[in-house]
Amino acid sequence: MNLRAADQIAKAVLYEGYMLYPYRPSSVKNQQRWNFGVLCPESYSAAQNGNEASTMQTECLVVGSSRTALHVRVRFLQLVERTIGELSTPASEVPADQVPEFRLVDRLAVDGRIHQPWQEAVEREVGLPMSNIEALGRGPVSQSIRFPREKQFEFLREPGGLIVGVTVREQEALSGVVKITGEAVEDQVFKIRVHISNTTPLATTSGTNRQEVLLSSLVSVHTVLGVQDGSFVSQFAPAEKLVELAARCTNVGTWPVLVGVEGESDTMLSSPIILYDYPQIAPESAGDLFDGTEIDEILSLRIMTLTEEEKREMSQSDERARAMLERTESMPVEQLMKLHGVLRGLRSAKEGTL
């Protein structure tokens, strides 16, 4: 299984739209994030008449035998609400089991840095045990998704050591189920189904807005599938005898593609963003810019032309944004020139054509 190639593409999918140019919380484009692969709680989906999904389904074909084994990993982001508090009374020290009184603020300047609220994210992965593909026809394999509620406090100190503020990071409890089923649809051809659902309970859906629900949602959900002693069938270009069977596969909120070196067929990525078989990260790319629809060169040049104030807001809003800014500003000219364009190959044009 070519898991390295799958992980490269999956990482790009995971953070697609995480933060868009001009990479500042105050920009309009970053007021509503998290638009790809979002699975909200079932109760909220029902209250929205299904306009917000709570489930995702991947179906694909595998050519194999009684020896064929299937491995499935589900990956997503869990959002963390970051709020900023200003202490009512600054303190030099705070007992480990106590939290001083504070009030929430939109901005707090401490030691030359601006602290502000934001939604961060942590990566989550749920791996299912290796399953015999023939045995899946006799019964499904399920795995629970469970992550507890957490709340963390980080105190903000002035240069003299006085604590004047606090960063509060909260993440809600998440629960869900991943279920794998399989069936033989032809001799040595199996249909595999991976169904993901968010079963996180909500106290109420009345008056709950999407921003609040996102904290109880699975975000940027995608699935990595691998087989041993078997091969996946392309959904884009199946063999002629398998076209009809492939057309009967029902994918909901996601689309499976082959990944790895072109011609390999033992690894598949099911992504909420439609890709073609064998997607690749350009080797010239210096790092993630969170926007696969844009050109690295354009985004890099735009970042370089931000004002000092804009760069300050970018670097202080998010650790990933700060790392991207530092990487771009320190990029050698040779690396920037590589982004300008690469000739991948030539083909001859037929005579008399343009």
| β-sheet strand percentage | 25-35%
**Helical content class:** 10-25%
How many β strands by DSSP?
16
Q: Give a short account of the largest sheet.
A: 9 strands, antiparallel
User: Using only CA atoms, what is the Rg?
Assistant: 24 Å
Question: Which descriptors apply to this entry?
Answer:
single chain; 354 residues; alpha+beta; five-stranded antiparallel beta sheet; 8 helices
Your description of this structure?
Helix 6 packs across helix 7. The strands form 3 sheets. Strands 2, 3, 6, 7, 9, 10, 13, 15 and 16 form a 9-stranded antiparallel β-sheet that branches. Strands 8-11-12-1-14 form a 5-stranded antiparallel β-sheet, with no helix packed on it. It has 354 residues and is α+β, with helices and mostly antiparallel strands. It has helices at 3-14, 42-47, 210-214, 243-247, 296-304, 308-317, 319-329, 333-338; strands spanning 55-63, 69-91, 102-105, 108-110, 113-115, 118-127, 131-132, 141-147, 150-157, 163-171, 174-186, 189-198, 219-228, 231-232, 255-258, 267-271. It is built from 8 helices and 16 strands.
